[in-house]
Please model this.
Amino acid sequence: MGKIYKQLNILDKAVFCFGIALDLKPPAADLAIIKSAMEKVHLPDELMDDDL
Model:
């Protein structure tokens, strides 16, 4: 959901959804991906990796 909100340029909801994903205690590999996506929310889409 966070990635979709980012594409729609609803950044506050994107960060909120990434935060909820972190609260669900994901495995370590997913944790790193979620944190990375959360840090990149305010970057333009063309600068973001497509690893999500």
Residues 15 and 38 are 6 Å apart (CA to CA). The radius of gyration is 10 Å. The chain has a mean pLDDT of 89.
